[in-house]
Amino acid sequence: MTTRTPPRLTTARAPGRLTAARKPSRGHHDRALFGRFRHGYIAPGALLVAGLLYLPFLWTVYLSFTNYDGLSPATWAGLANYRALLHDPALLTAIRNTLIWVGGTTLLPVGLGLLVAVLSYNIKGGAWLRLPFLLPYAFSGAGIGLVWGVLLSPGGTLNHVLGFFHLPGAHTPLLSYAPLNTVVLIIAMTWQQIGVNTLLFVVGLQSIPREPIEAAKIDGASGWALFQRVIWPLLSPLTTVVVGLALVASLKTFDVVWVATQGGPGRTSETLAVTMYRDTFVADQYGYGSAVAVLLTVVTGVVSVIYLRQQLSRRERLNG
Question: In the beta sheet, which residues pair with residue 225?
Answer without folding.
Answer: none
